[in-house]
Amino acid sequence: MRAAAAANPGKRIALWFMDEARVGQKGRLCHRWWARGRRPPGRCDGRFEWAYLFAAVEPATGADVALVLPEATTAAMNLFLAAFAAALPGDVHAALVLDGAGWHGGRALVVPANVTLVPLPPYSPELNPVERVWLYLRERFLSLRVFTDYCAIVDACCAAWNRLVAEPGRLRSLCDQSWIRKVSS
Questions:
Q1: Which region, left, alpha or beta, applies to residue 52 given φ > 0 means left and ψ of -120 to 50 means alpha?
Q2: Gyration radius from the chain CA atoms
Q3: pLDDT by 10-residue block (mean), the chain, 185 residues
């Protein structure tokens, strides 16, 4: 963050975290309370269509930017970064923390001038609070469902995200961690 601050004098540096989640017909089971020794009932789909929910969250304020895209590629990441940069106020430079996925650092990646990418160390998803958001969305809105087609997947992702951000303070409470407050203060 110091490098971002030094390179952008007069701008407020905002710490954001970003990740993407695959949501689709193959589904994902979630935790359920059930009778010991018995398997809980649940729907499962064997088809293979997905959408990717890209999201960035500022834990300090609960601000968010999210897009549902058909693939997780460098081109999709460029679309997300452009939307993210456009959503930032003019006096803000974002330090965007993300994992080491291949599309986060490809040669064709276009990083906007008001964004600095900060990669996480390998194999450290616990350092990205957006992972907790995916768990929340899957356990409450996206698991144990059968989607009819790609449009139904996109609609479910949008509805789940809109329900999440409609709850006052929920996104902030999911992403706020004590070590983030120490880093960003």
A1: beta
A2: 18
A3: 62 94 72 68 70 95 96 96 96 94 87 95 90 93 86 96 95 88 70
Question: How many angstroms separate the CA atoms of 155 and 147, rounded?
Answer: 10
**Are 58 and 16 in contact, with CB atoms under 8 Å apart?**
yes
* Strand-pair partners of 67: 54
Three-state DSSP state, 35: coil
pTM across the whole model: 0.85
Q: Please give the angle made by the CA atoms of 53, 59 and 65, to the nearest 5 degrees.
A: 35
Of 47, 81, 42, which is closest to residue 150 (Cα–Cα)? 47
Among the listed residues 50, 76, 67, 57, the one whose alpha carbon sits nearest the alpha carbon of residue 18: 57
Cβ-in-10-Å burial (0-12, 13-18, 19+) of 83 comes to: middle
Domains and CATH numbers, the chain: 2-28+44-184 (3.30.420.10)
Label the pairing between strands 50-58 and 12-24.
antiparallel
- Helix axis angle, 130-137 relative to 150-166, nearest 10°? 110
